[in-house]
Amino acid sequence: MGDDAPVRAAAGGASDDTTLEATGRRSADWYGMLDAAGARDWPHKQIAGHLVAAHGVDGWWAQSITVGYEQAAGGARERLLLSVRPAAGKPATVSLTWSGMADDHALSTVKGRLAKLLDTLP
Predict the structure, then answer these.
(1) For 19-77, how does the pLDDT look when each residue is reduced to its tens digit (9 = 90+)?
(2) Could you tell me which residues are beta bridge partners of residue 81?
(3) Per-residue DSSP letters for 47-116?
(4) Which domain range does residue 22 map to?
(5) What is the pTM of this model?
(6) Is residue 7 part of a domain?
(7) CA angle, corner 45, sides to 41 and 50, nearest 5?
(8) Residue 4 lies inside a defined structural domain of this protein
(9) Same domain as 28, residue 72
(10) Crossing angle, helix 59-73 and helix 16-23, to 10 degrees?
(11) Structural domain contains residue 96
């Protein structure tokens, strides 16, 4: 990691007032709590799960806060998002989004994670 600067709010997503109204805290407060918990090194699912389990955040809001946190963290971590949208009787759509430098290590990571994802398909 190496970047110890606190995560700041990113543009886009729910407004700070809306987040405060729905969750009782502003985005920056959530981001500070997540930083304190060590969430910069956690995968998306773990961050959202932590918000639900430890703080009682509604699932939708946990996802919204998590996405905002990840976007605000920006270059603090490499991002790899894999998404599969299978439909019964239809071919599956697999999308891959990578945010980071496309060096040999990054490409190897992408290939490895994509292979694991494809192994989970029926």
Answers:
(1) 999 999 999 999 999 999 999 888 889 999 999 999 999 999 999 999 888 888 764 44
(2) 97
(3) HHHHHHHHH---HHHHHHHHHHHHHHHGGGS-EEEEEEE--TTSPPEEEEEEES---HHHHHHHHHHHHH
(4) 16-76
(5) 0.57
(6) no
(7) 80
(8) no
(9) yes
(10) 140
(11) yes
